[in-house]
Design a protein that fits this description.
Oligomer: single chain
Strand content: 15-25%
Largest sheet: 6 strands, parallel
Number of helices: 9
CATH class: Alpha Beta
CATH architecture: 3-Layer(aba) Sandwich
Shape: globular
Structural class: alpha/beta
Mean pLDDT: 93
Number of strands: 6
Order of helices and strands: EHEHHHEHHEHEEHH
Length: 202
Amino acid sequence: MKVLIVFDTRYGNVHKLAEAVAVGIRGVEGAEVLLRRVEITEPEAVIQQNERWREANEKFKAIPQVTLEEMGGADAIIFGSPTRFGNMTAPMKKLFDSLGGLWMEGKFYGKAGAVFTSTGTPHGGNEMTLITMIIPMYHLGMIVVTPGYGDPAIREAGSPYGATSVSGPMSDIPPTEKDLTVARFLGSRVAQVAKALASSKA
């Protein structure tokens, strides 16, 4: 059972959440994790102007870019993006916009999926960004899995819609341990749902 994590990042905080989601997935028997990035669309000259972005981007580039074949073949997909004015980033939106062919083939119908995000300020669009990623997942026919309030940490971190953190250049705080706890819980929950769906089909 392959669970695909596809994410974008700027300063490495969404990457940290992605790694925590992966830990949660690996805790479910039979689950395999594929950690992939979106296409880097920003000009290299712009990235090089910001030291933190430049350092995080070196690690980001080392992760393979997701392919449409991987997306079509995964049993579940979890999307992660920084927020941009209450929305996902342009590279993540570009990825969603490229899925028309696979959507027509029904490749996403009935697959489990979830979302996570990070903002630079409190109330900076966390939940709006999660929702903007969830809407195209509904169009694709995916079964959206949320953490709800299934873990006590969600009462102090994250969101019932997905894993979150308040990090980035404005707050300059990496995801907290409770943020990472929610991310691990989300990964585990998606893998469990994907496993149940696979069993029912079998």
